[in-house]
């Protein structure tokens, strides 16, 4: 089984979009519409929950993208690519 990946915080979709302009600022909080599975410098493989507005920023923050899929209907379980 491939290793499970998650965001640097584990809030899930109920918390809303995880984007924040600064790490010590509140998150966006808009409804999550997309999950982005990507490799980031310092965190490794992460699953980013994003609203449509902030999805391009989340993508740009990844050195490599493994998957982008709609949040609707997703189980929330994401795994690092092999």
Describe the structure.
This protein has 82 residues and is mainly β. The protein contains one helix and three strands; from the N terminus they run ββαβ. It has one helix at residues 55-60, and strands at 34-40, 44-50, 64-70. Strands 2-1-3 form a three-stranded antiparallel beta sheet. The model is unreliable at 7-11 (pLDDT under 50).
Radius of gyration: 12 Å
Report the uncertain regions.
Answer: 7-11
Task: Give the oligomer, counting copies of the same chain as homo and different chains as hetero.
Answer: single chain
Outline the biggest β-sheet.
Answer: 3 strands, antiparallel
User: Mean pLDDT, rounded to whole units?
Assistant: 82
Count of helical regions: 1
Distance, first to last CA: 9 Å
Principal-axes geometry comes out as globular
Structural class category: mainly beta
Spatial sequence of strands, sheet with the most strands? 2-1-3
Return the string of H and E elements: EEHE
Strand content: 25-35%
Number of strands: 3
Share of residues in helices: under 10%
Give a short summary of the structure.
By secondary structure, this protein is mostly beta strands. Helices cover 7% and strands 26% of the residues. The chain has 1 helix and 3 strands, in the order ββαβ.
List descriptors.
7% helix, three-stranded antiparallel beta sheet, 1 helix, globular, mainly beta, 82 residues
Q: What's the structural blueprint in terms of helices and strands?
A:
Layout: E1 34-40, E2 44-50, H1 55-60, E3 64-70
Antiparallel strand pairs: 1-2, 1-3
């Amino acid at each position: 089984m491939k290793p499970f990946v998650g965001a640097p915080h584990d809030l899930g979709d109920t918390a809303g979009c995880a984007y924040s302009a600064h790490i010590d600022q509140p998150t966006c909080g808009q409804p999550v519409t997309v999950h982005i599975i990507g490799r980031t410098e310092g965190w490794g493989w992460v699953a980013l929950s994003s609203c449509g507005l902030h999805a391009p920023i989340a993508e740009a923050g990844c050195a490599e993208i493994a998957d982008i899929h709609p949040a609707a209907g997703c189980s929330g379980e994401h795994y690092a690519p092999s």
